[in-house]
Amino acid sequence: MNVGIVGASGYSGEVLVKLLLAHPHVTLTAVTSRQHAGKALSSVIPALRGTVADALTFSNSDAAALAAREDIGVWFLALPHGTAADFAQALVPAGRKVIDLSADFRVTDLATFEKYYGSHHAPELLPQARFVLPELTDPSWRTEAKLAAAPGCYPTSTLVPLAPLLAAGIVAREHIVVNSFSGVSGAGKKAEEAYLYVERAESAKAYGLVKHRHLAEIEEQLSLRADAKVTVQFNPHLAPMRRGIITTITVPAAAGATIGSLYAAWRAAYAGRPFVAILPSGETPDSAHVTGTNRVDISAVHDPRTGNFVLTSALDNLMKGASGQAVQIMNLWCGFPENAGLV
């Protein structure tokens, strides 16, 4: 199957290119970039010199022209929010399968989206889109969705450990505190002083308090799993590393819940899922152990003094937090093995 990437020159786009070039069941046929149109793919991503990428050239990002290409089975949108919706408006009505890595279709409630992101460029497509975190989203999306919205990195690191516990009544819905640390690649390729090497090396700080945009996605999905409104205190941080996310969640244990019942709920939720690793209680995940993989590692401990569970997770923000998860979605949507082209 032929696939294409719109916006293939950013960090997520570059990782997506490498994954799709090595995928056993697809051929990367089209890569677009307004900035690099006409340039060879391997000249923009030099790590790919001497590979099949030498034969690929960036084309201009023209939505109508891309929608007219009947040879492309799946389009990936590796674009900023707002811009992705503009391309979806052309591709989805043309019957093309679209996997969006931006935030444009992750939040189903329009009023909530506009509260965090401003006006939506394609609100008419929201009913056709499905938020897809493969381990948690009902499989009906594979036949019902016209557009698949890949979750964000922070939400994935939060939802994977927390959502099954809310659904099973293992934890309380109130007083949930989420502290996350992200590598600077999560901000994308933008020239800002805060992301310069000399600013970030040997330095960590909180940012986006108290209304980070990913909070909309996190609370909407948790509320769906709990079947009640869930409010989260979300505290994101920049960490002095290129890639990776570490998340620590403090949440009150429900009456009668034990660390054993928590782990039982996790094992039931993730049995047979290749990209969730449940570590023993007390063995905290390490971002270095998941870098370059599509895996999220999770663990938990119980604090008898406070009555809280402390959940921890680690993932690669450019893999399970973005491009790897998008390929996982494609695999499931197109009938390939879930782990095809992924580790």
Question: If you had to describe this structure to a student in words, what would you say it looks like?
Answer:
By secondary structure, the protein is an alpha/beta fold. It has eleven helices and 14 strands. It has a seven-stranded parallel sheet, sandwiched between helices. A seven-stranded mixed sheet has the order 9-10-8-11-14-13-12, with helices on one face. α1 crosses α11 and α7 packs parallel to α9.
SS element count, helices: 11
Q: What is the terminal-to-terminal distance?
A: 21 Å
Q: Which CATH class of the largest domain? A: Alpha Beta
Query: How do the helices and strands follow one another from N- to C-terminus?
Result: EHEHEHEHEHEHEHEHEHEEHEEEH
Residue share in β-strands: 15-25%
- Overall outline: globular
Sheet with most strands: strand arrangement: 3-2-1-4-5-7-6
Share in helix: 25-40%
**Fold-level CATH name of the largest domain:** Rossmann fold
CATH superfamily of the largest domain: NAD(P)-binding Rossmann-like Domain
- Please tell me how large the radius of gyration is: 20 Å
Q: What is the domain tally? A: 2
Mean pLDDT: 94
- How many E strands? 14
